[in-house]
Amino acid sequence: MPTFIVLLGPPGVGKGTQAELIAEATGLPHISSGDLFRENIKNTTELGKLAQAYMNKGELVPDDVTISMIRSRLSRPDCKEGALLDGFPRTTVQADSLANLLTEFNGKVNFVPYITASESTLIERLSGRWTCKAQGHIFHEKHNPPHKPGVCDFDASELYQRDDDKAETVKRRIQVYLTQTAPLITYYRQLGLLSEIDGTQPIEKVTEALMAVLGKIA
Ligand code: ADP
Ligand code: ADP
User: Fold this and answer.
1) What number is the average pLDDT over the span 17-27?
2) What's the gap in Å between 42 CA and the centre of ligand 1?
């Protein structure tokens, strides 16, 4: 049976950072819906043009296009053993679609680590986030600085500050999270899949807590 992990939590809590580390430890592919959209924007695809308008405002991209993008990503052979989903699902409609989709792959959602932090922590993290242009590697100017300012440690590409990490857009993204995504906490808790993790700890402690939750596979 494949293993599917859904990383849940507000913007800036550390999902992408942890997903990179957990993907390396488990061998599961890291699938970030935000990265997939940003790749489409970079390649100026129709999907990218559509997504950009929503992303710039801090709104969610409509469910139908998001679900079909994830469906095609999960259909790739590297997801045969499962995947680590970061940023998807973000609505209950997406969560229902994911459940249906995974039955097609003889799988289901196995773990939902839910990472938490206060709003002021999220804002501080997003305002200091630097992202790698080539592959989306994540740094923080204070908490996880690159060896050389402005340069990715992993692929030497340029680091940039995401447009949607501006203060006004961050506020909107947190609001959108609270109204549209937070219902997934109850959704997955009721299914007995949710494990809460304190995201205010240092990066390596959060990883340890995650690995403990995922103990059966790592
Ligand atoms: P998300 O994917 O949930 O939006 P990221 O993984 O991109 O979050 O992290 C947001 C910012 O916070 C990044 O700059 C990252 O380096 C930093 N960060 C992540 N986890 C921690 C942590 N445990 N402590 C301090 N900073 C962190
Ligand atoms: P963060 O690092 O803050 O969690 P992401 O990179 O996951 O941000 O997402 C950036 C933007 O991409 C979101 O604000 C939203 O516009 C869009 N997006 C990402 N994932 C989804 C999704 N599952 N459903 C709808 N929109 C999404």
Assistant:
1) 95
2) 23
